[in-house]
Design goal:
By secondary structure, this protein is an alpha+beta fold. The protein has six helices and eight strands; from the N terminus they run ββααβαβαββββαα. The strands form two sheets. A six-stranded antiparallel β-sheet has the order 3-5-6-7-8-4, with helices on both faces. A two-stranded antiparallel ribbon has the order 1-2. The radius of gyration is 28 Å and the shape is elongated.
Length: about 200
C-alpha cells in the first residue's frame, strides 16, 4: 500500500522562550503505525534539558531511577529511528506499460481448445495483468502455474524498455528478451479481481 506523507514540517518549536524543538513523526503507512506510536510515546517521556524536573526531596533514589529510565527511553528512540524510516519509504510509482502488438495463439491439437473462444484480452488487459500480477522466480512459477491451450503474445514497452510478452489463459505470464532475460508472473487474487472478465472469475 502506498505511503502517505504529511506536508507538516518534521519539527515545530514548542511555545515559549528557551525551549527546544519538539520533533514529531508523520507517517500514515499501516506497516509503521505501531513503530510511529512507540516513537511518539518515547519522545513524550524524553526530558527536555531546558525544563526543570521537580523531584520529591525525600525520594532521591526514586528520582535517579526515573532519570535513568528516561535516558534509556531516549536511547531507544534513537535506535528505533532507522527502523521507522525504513517502514515509511514511499511506494514505487506504477509501471508505465504500452502494448504495441497483440495476437492470440491456440494449440489446435489440445482437446480443451474450445475454451479458448472466450479468452480475448485487450491491450488494456495486458497492461493490467503486468501491473497487478505477482512476479515470481522460476521454481515457484513451474510449481504453481497452470498452462492451458490458449495464450496471447506480443510486444510491449515497460518503463520505456521493450519486451516480448506471453499471457496464458491459466493466469501465467512471461516477459522476455532476445538476450535470454526472462521474468515470470502469476495472476494472484489482486490480478484475478482486476481481470475477472478475462479469466472467467466473474
Amino acid at each position: 500500500m502506498a505511503t502517505t506523507w504529511s506536508t507538516t514540517p518534521w519539527c515545530h518549536a514548542a511555545a515559549g522562550e528557551g525551549t527546544l524543538p519538539r520533533c514529531v513523526v508523520f507517517c500514515k503507512a499501516p506497516a509503521s503505525r505501531t513503530i510511529a506510536a512507540l516513537f511518539h510515546a518515547i519522545l513524550r517521556h524524553t526530558p527536555n534539558p531546558h525544563e526543570s524536573i521537580a523531584m520529591p526531596k525525600l525520594l532521591p533514589v526514586a528520582g535517579q531511577a526515573r532519570r535513568a529510565m528516561r535516558r534509556g527511553l531516549a536511547v531507544a528512540a534513537i535506535c528505533l529511528l532507522p527502523v521507522w524510516l525504513a517502514a515509511c519509504q514511499p511506494a514505487r510509482p506504477p509501471a508505465r506499460i504500452t502494448v504495441t502488438s497483440l495476437a492470440s495463439r491456440v494449440d489446435t491439437n489440445d482437446p480443451a481448445r474450445a475454451m479458448c473462444q472466450s479468452f480475448a484480452p485487450t491491450p488494456h488487459d495486458v497492461s493490467t495483468f503486468f501491473r497487478t500480477a505477482t512476479e515470481v522466480d522460476g521454481p515457484a512459477f513451474h510449481a504453481r502455474s497452470i498452462i492451458l491451450p490458449c495464450r496471447v503474445e506480443g510486444i510491449l514497452t515497460l518503463d520505456g524498455e521493450a519486451w516480448r510478452f506471453s499471457i496464458n489463459a491459466g493466469g501465467a505470464g512471461h516477459l522476455y528478451k532476445a538476450d535470454g532475460t526472462r521474468r515470470q508472473y502469476l495472476c494472484g487474487q489482486r490480478c484475478q479481481k482486476a481481470l475477472a472478465r478475462v479469466f472467467g472469475a466473474d
